[in-house]
Each structure stands twice: as structure tokens, then as C-alpha cells.
Amino acid sequence: MSSQDIPEDKHLPSEQGDAHHAGVAVADDPFADPGLPAHKPRIQDIDERAAKRSERTVAMLFTISMLATIGFIAAYVTIPVDKIVFIFPLGKVSALNFALGLTLGAALFCIGAGAVHWARTLMSDVEVADERHPIQASPEVKAKVMQDFADGASESAIGRRPLIRNTMIGALAMLPLSALVIMRDLGPLPQEKLRKTLWAKGKLLINQNTMEPLRPEDVAVGSLTFAMPEGLEEEQHDFQVQIAKAALMIVRIQPEDIKDKKELEWSHDGIVAYSKICTHVGCPISLYEQQTHHVLCPCHQSTFDLSDGARVIFGPAGHALPQLRIGVNKEGFLEALGDFEEPVGPAFWERG
Ligand code: FES
């Protein structure tokens, strides 16, 4: 934009020849408005070749965005939902989610980067001062708006045509029903699905770090071990669904420190197994304080006492963590003696 393009009332104070802004008064008055610094042209403003280069860069970013959008559609259509790939450093991820995220991210990023580059290098960057105006409409404008509204209502004949008015109200009232109907997917709750996990009598406890069956001697006093049921494979399509219910925390406590009688009966030589899923809203619990036998959920700080039936001693969780009854099989491996006897995770699943 050249200085001729700038509206009359938006010219820089210095361009208006205002002595107050131009510095005369500034020198006398330290609190005077110094005005805006003089405009410095960019390389693109004075060199047409640089401007062309910027233009090509912007066009290239927009073109990449178009290609990324085509890639997004192609990925959505061609990649199977259950395909898992290994991506360093993320590990195993869903190929479809990865491709969709990557292409959509690239498409959005390139549009943003192109727009920013365009604005910074080619659009006018001449500083203009625009005085603030009151934002309230004048009484004449308000009166005109009300008159226009009344005229519109009268022209629509909504008062004279009750059939249209009533059916329109009916249509608008019913429209939200479509949003309500899809909430059916939230219930009735599949209680059996949530009540059952993969744990069953005789299932070995697999160390989630080593993927080896756990022996009692592998669990040291003071350590926190995460376990999952034998037979659950990370590659299987419902791994996340199953581990979200079956994830287990194993700790070893001196048997004489276990206060809860049932907990002691369900343990093996001081080794206790509890659901790792917080009973507040289902975060995985991961912090263990070995002196107090407390575990802490990092999400909202619910704290459970693993030496006392995992009862809640602090925080918003509604009830104790479910315990899994465990024993040792003939080969000396830790095994489950059944499934959890209560649903794991947030208490609200038990409603209804
Ligand atoms: S999910 Fe654990 S405290 Fe909220």
C-alpha cells in the first residue's frame, strides 16, 4: 500500500506534519506521545526479484497443503483401520491415525505458514494509526435496526401465516433430537463387558517391562511392577481396550504390615495385585511411595493405601481399587485365581 492508499484520517502523525508528534513537543515534554517510528521498506518492497521469490515460496506452501489434503483422503480410503506400524521414536502406532495426523497437520501447517509468509513479506506493512471510536451504536442506528427488524417480520408474514410459523417452530424444536439420539451410544451401559476383564483362574501375571511371567522372587519389597494377563499381545487389535481393564499393579509388602484381612488372604507372601485404573475417572496410577505403601494417581491426586485394602485416603476417587486374588502355580509363577470381583475403573460405570 502506498502512502496515497492510506485514508486521510489514518496517516502517520509525522506525515501530517503535526509538530506535537514530529518531535518538537516531545523534546519539551517527556510524557508526550512520540508517535510511530519512520517506516522501513523491506527487501521485497524494493527488489522485485525478492518479491517474486516470496511469491513462489507462498505458492509452494499452498501447493504442499493441497498435496497433503489429497494424501489425507488417500490414507483414509486405503489404509486399514487395524494396521499397526513401527515408527521411531513413537513405537507401534496405528498406521491410519499416523497418516491422517501427519497429512492433516502438514496441510494446516502449510496454509498457516503460507499465509504468515505472504503477510510478512508481500502484504503492505505500512504502519497506520486508527483512532478508537465509541463502539456503541447511535440512537438513530438502533432505531433503524429495530425498524428493519419489524419490517422484516412484517414482510415475512409470520403473523399471518400460522402454518409456516408453527411448522418452523416444530422443525427447530425437533432438530436437537438428532443430537440427543446419538447419545444412545452412551448407554445402556455394556455392564458385562466392563465387569469382565481378561483375568481368569490360572492366567499368569506377565511383567509389562520384560514380557516374562512373574515369579514371587521377581517382586522386591518397595518396588512397583506393572503386569498384564498371559495371552494378551500388544499387536492384537483390541489391545488398548483389554489393557485398559486388565492393567495390574504388583507390590510386595511385609505381610505383618498388611492391615486388611481379605487383602492378606488374596495376596501371596505379601505380594498384592491391584487394578492400576484409578476409580475416579480412570487414569493409570503410576506413583508408589514405598514407606507408606500409598499409590498416587497423577491426574487429580487420589491416594490409595495398598496396605489397607487400597482404600482412598485422599482425593476425589469414590472407592478402593479392586484387588485381584493371586497365588503361585506348580511351576512357581504368579497366577490369577480368578477375575476381579468388582468392575475396575471409575465408579460411574456401575450406575444404571
Ligand atoms: S483419575 Fe485418578 S484422581 Fe482423578
From TrEMBL:
Annotated localization: Cell membrane
Lineage top rank: taxon: Bacteria
Keyword Secreted found: no
PROSITE patterns: RIESKE
Occurrences of domain Rieske (ranges): 240-335
Keywords: 2Fe-2S, Cell membrane, Disulfide bond, Electron transport, Iron, Iron-sulfur, Membrane, Metal-binding, Oxidoreductase, Respiratory chain, Transmembrane, Transmembrane helix, Transport
Pfam families referenced in this protein's UniProt entry, alphabetically: QcrA_N, Rieske
Transmembrane segments: 58-79, 99-119, 163-183
Membrane disposition: Multi-pass membrane protein
Keyword Disulfide bond: yes
Function: Iron-sulfur subunit of the cytochrome bc1 complex, an essential component of the respiratory electron transport chain required for ATP synthesis. The bc1 complex catalyzes the oxidation of menaquinol and the reduction of cytochrome c in the respiratory chain. The bc1 complex operates through a Q-cycle mechanism that couples electron transfer to generation of the proton gradient that drives ATP synthesis.
Family: Belongs to the Rieske iron-sulfur protein family.
PANTHER family xref list: CYTOCHROME B-C1 COMPLEX SUBUNIT RIESKE, MITOCHONDRIAL
Name under which the protein is recorded: Cytochrome bc1 complex Rieske iron-sulfur subunit
